[in-house]
């Protein structure tokens, strides 16, 4: 008896299974905000839907205290004025436990089918979610649409298909029959029941609330768990819309919608989160945020499986290049994209102090640094175009960090405020690029400076650059490592460094792919092999411990005859 | 370029893959100590090999301080007198790290092939290991042979095949090509390198050193890790022989044998183990033992993935029965087998105080209790036969526990010392069975009384029995739950209780299968869903986080042409 939503989406699931096996390019969700795909009025409708949410109480039919919370402010310069129903954690935990009982019993096909139906509906809301992501994270619209919409949906589907790939291997039952020589065989019927952990807690971040929040949410759902979604207080809306859609789908499919609930909070909700994270009912936690908070969860929430993505120091090693301008253009884009507020954005750029080889002969360290500086400056020279790349700074902490960083060394590129042509109050800053020296500045560059802050670092040699890159990644965490070299031996050495550092390597990116980008179904985001994350998006380990199997066995009649002896 | 040992054992691996998919009966290792399978002189040779090890220094070509350790005493009444090379943990950690580098680079096929070759050789040593297991654990020979030999080898192979099943899904490389409309596609070549965690630590127990130790050891090896095997000081020999074989195979296959090393210790090695378990080099820990030690590891060894099997309270619910004598015979066997020193042995037997339904009408509580008592007494009435079932008590702690338990309530069956006909000094005790009442004695029966100690507990009803069973399993842990009923509704209720308790259920066992038994490739041993274990033997979750994947990506020429537009 196949669940109808499973049948409806089975083709997508099959294609996704093939995609995670071959890891080539694949996506069922169109990344371009094209009227042909999403509908002629989709953009206007989505923007209108977003605007209609402003200065209202967000409607969500779930247990509430009757009060409201919420204080989101758009990084583009205006308060959203949205109030969310306040929920009591105890009430949500009880509601989740109640809802989980029948959800658990529905089984793997229903979990996959409902998850995929939620995703299909979320996809149709991509513009509304895109504008919501834009005005909570500060991403420019195109990025907010893509990263907050289809790319996040890809990562969600990836989590669902990994879950399904594991669940489908567990047979519902088995006939076990052990020969006993001349005696009749021992025969048993065995039943295997997939038992979800219970209730999961998803702790969202303020820069990629959906992209980083969906994998845990959908991995939990697809393995039969209930989920409490606790967004970052600064970026509630994209997840609130998602929760509303999830609840609609659950309700329509005949389930208790409290399988998914929203715990919206006011800023400074740390104590509330810590209390909730240690509750015995919480069996799964997915967290994206600071190393401090993530490590606290890993070390204290012993009752739960804890999946974290934390801070890291992403690095670029420049050894040699055919075309330094192409290198510089690509790196500058990576530094500027969403003002470096990506967990994958590069920070440390290592260049040998004696310069590098290029097709046109040796280029001095200063010349390489200047090429990078020029490329950054060129990219942000036109404010109207620049803001579509930079977006806005998510919060004042990042602005303060730029101020603090600018005293660390020689400034190669100064960070500037830009006026946004459409949003007068937008908090826009261009990248700050500093020059440091590996010999004396390691205390400065061995920590994350989250935001549009990067360091061009002089090293003794490429060998030292790679040594540093591997060591920093292993000790302080990293999500990306990038190398530029025309020397195969250096590229192999970079592979070795990436393995030592447990960090994904990009090689000679000079075209339309940037180190910040991570493609679902093909690129593992994070490795779980260094302190930046204890899990990867997504793999078997990300899903296989979100459920357990409980079996039974009972004697039945054997099918085979005793073995004739003698 | 397939590794020759992978080719050699590929057929076994394919059969094992099929087995974990269908979970029917399968085993490549003959469980009967038959001369036809193992060779006419295998038993005598194995016993001679064991005896030749006594009162000698165990030869093991690995880093040592030059000193020796070891104080094993056979539960059958004589000191083994075996001294093992003492190893310094720092030296072993360094040797493991060195050895791991080339082992890592060998890749998944080599890891699987070498693991399977080790197992094939271990299988040939089953008699030697069987006698070693007998004289360290106290198991009677047949059980020591089976559980210490082929059944342990089955569990090891199961871990290898689960590892391989996950590893084979990760492609070595991929071609990723993303259409760009009228522009040329973006094309990249991606490389995926499986990166093992590093060094694992296997902490053995004194009752099933190989059966419980092999899964972690072989899961680590099959995912490319180095392993330090730290046996329980009371049961070093079976693992020492295993390590020696593993090192031989590694050396012959061209690897540094320090991929597997032995850390033999004297009794009371707790401080040494705690120090080692927190070392940053230790990335994986597999532990079988007390709840106290297991929980300590889970809460302190944050640098490692920790897999534990701890204490639990196994339970039997008797609701009704067609043939109470068959029920009693089966239960009595489970209580007597290896003197209840199995993590799967039942302890709490719940019977309604108003009696049970049988084919011959209602049987009073006292009559059921008496039937159980009679069956136990009958089973141990003949000492010469009894000792082949009971084996010997592993350590004096168990004897003292019997003394302590005997004061807890009305004694239904008294525990007795038996003379072993072959071993004058053997520490043999028959099962102690007490009568308790659920209404007043819960403090007594909600903890594990490891050893030949069981409680027949009067409850208000089967509903209360099942309520207790689910609750105890969930709160205090359990590896087994057994129900006897002729009522389908009760059996379904038992399923629900087993799911609430996260514990495997056996139904109406009255024949040749006993609740203590757990068959590799078919029965999950432990669920990871209650406090008795945080993992199951074996499943995807047991292996998927013992390695990570590190990728690289580089642009290549696209294969497809741009899409014609217009």
Overall structural domain count of chain A: 2
Put simply, the count of helices of chain A is 20
Portion in strands of chain A: 15-25%
Q: Please give the CATH class of the largest domain in chain A.
A: Alpha Beta
At the fourth CATH level, what is the homologous superfamily of the largest domain in chain A? Aldehyde Dehydrogenase, Chain A, domain 1
Estimated helix fraction of chain A: 40-55%
State the assembly state of the protein chains.
homodimer
Outline type of chain A: globular
| Rg over CA atoms of chain A | 26 Å
| CATH architectural name of the largest domain in chain A | 3-Layer(aba) Sandwich
Main sheet: strand order of chain A: 17-20-21-14-12-22-23
- Give the rounded overall mean pLDDT of chain A: 97
Number of extended strands of chain A: 24
* Biggest sheet character of chain A: 7 strands, mixed
Report how far apart the termini of chain A are. Answer: 48 Å
Q: Structural class of the helices, strands and pairings of chain A?
A: alpha/beta
Q: Runs of chain A with pLDDT <50, length 5+?
A: none
Biggest interchain interface, per-side counts: A-B, 66 and 66 residues
For this structure, the CATH topology of the largest domain in chain A is: Aldehyde Dehydrogenase, Chain A, domain 1
